[in-house]
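ugh finaly. both done.
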Amino acid sequence: MEMKRSLLVLTCTLFWGMACSASKSIREGEWSGTFYLNDTTRMPFRFVVNDSGFVFVNGSERIAAGDIKSAGDSVFVTMPVFDSEFRMKKDSDELSGTFINHQRISNQTIRCKAVYGVQAPLVNDFELNDFSGRWSAVFDGDDPPLNVAVAEFAQTANRVTGTFLTPTGDYRFLDGFADGKSISISAFDGSHVFYFTASLDHDTLYGHYYSGTHWHDTWKAWRNENASLPDADSLAFLKPGFTGISFKYPDPDSNLVSLRDARYKGKVVLVQIMGSWCPNCMDEAMVLAPLYDKYKARGLEIIGLDFERINSFPEASSFIRKFQKHFSIHYPILFAGSTDRKLRAQAVTGLKDIVGFPTLIYIDRKGTVRKIHTGFSGPATGKHFEKWRDDFYRFVDLLLKEK
């Protein structure tokens, strides 16, 4: 019997061996969520329930989670790309439970709740400041040069959107509110829970940054239209005496792959150092995947070197397959080991260090490393992403034209 779907009807399945009862419906429309990061810190997030499933909203970004199951009064939402999920109980127009990131070794679980409707904060309009513009920022928890950032905010009334650009990538589509001399902006991408708060004191922002329940940092920022970051092409480099790199790692089917393989002889090769857990790597993959399909016939090859927080080949293979399928990646991704700083520093022969994820290594047809680019400014950075993309295509085209 076919049911009319004025509401989103959740598919009945078996979950952990439990028989699923009759389907439960979740009310369509906007929902307001809360992550409980500690005893006092509450991070808001938003999603819309519609025919696409649960669609999470970060500024102009939309992330649809369509893998939804129910068992009794329980609702299970599996996120795309990342190995993460919501496990919640439904009570009328309220959902409560936990968000679980299985790719983390510790601090995997965050308590959460969501209620139907838009829950906009009360705002003190009388003292509302304008936070739009470009800011130089410094984070206290990192060492130079990785502790600097550039914040770019846009504000309409009390709504604030923007991101932080850092030497290793950006914090994606941050979205939130201004209230008097304070701002709070956040993003949830299906794995990462980013939350920034700050208060303005004279000309300086003093703030806190939370990444889920496992990380807290403090930061400060000041207006600077000329704010800049270290050169992304200078952070990682080869060891003295080396002109190229080498490695040999397995793909998810246990096939060992090396740059010395016949497939790569005389080809332009891009080596993407990445992790399936990394949002900036995800953004970069959305550029690399179609590039490979377009330019493979001209002699372009790409290899992904995947570093995981969980140093397990079977689990890493599962993560890699899911990553490749979601982004339609047709080049090999190899499991290179753990993200542990000491281990990853030794993972690629000839490379001095892996400073951050992603890192993109450009190799010409003679096997010479021509450039190493650390980090990725994704679509959330607007004009910065467009500039990187233009420069990227231009340089790859130059390498392909060389004999």
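ok and the 2nd:
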Amino acid sequence: MARLSKQQQAEIRLKIIKTAVELFSENGFESTSMKQIAREAGIGDATIYKYFPNKDKLIYGYYGLMATETAKQFLAEEDLADYSLQEKLQLLIDIYLNNFLPNREFVCDSINMIMQSPSILFKDVAPVREEFVDLIRDLLTEAEQAGEIAQSPFTDATAKLANDYLLAVLLYWINDDSDEFSNTTQMVDMSLDLGVEILRSGIVSKATDLISFFVKAHLFRFMGSGFLNKLVMNKSFGL
């Protein structure tokens, strides 16, 4: 048998994921077997295990696929360079949620399952999160270089926080029963306004400078006066 190309393998992987999501949605996670998924996808019973060793990995594969597709669609957007940071983040969120929309019920069920079984997938979700962290870090760096937001020594930490914010938006969205998800839209608008305004103000860097000042100006003075040594001694002897 001829060896499958990477493109063919990617197509089979995609077909397996899409088939699994359909069956999970129709029959439930527990009632769907790997054999059912394989046969519905038109592949051998043993072949599916070459791509996914179990159903948990299939769920991870679905979220990984959504992350990859979101990043790809975002970067392919025309005139992206002309967008402000806030507009870019808004676009990223819109694409992210729109990709989940066709399978919203499955997303809700799978996330609830993950939350009830925190050992499932947590170690596997890191690569998906890293993909968004890198993308957001690039957006923040570009905004800093353009003078749109203040320079910060915590760009990496901010990117990770913004990535967690995307997950929070997803969790809010799956529980949003307002007309056309208007509550989610309003929440995202207000939170992005606040977040970008904080980045523009440079308050994070100012807070860091203040802490650095106190450390340099007072910590070494305390050390020189023996204050810290006395404090350690008193604590050691319970005084």
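summary for the 2nd one i guess: DSSP finds eleven helices and no strands in the chain.
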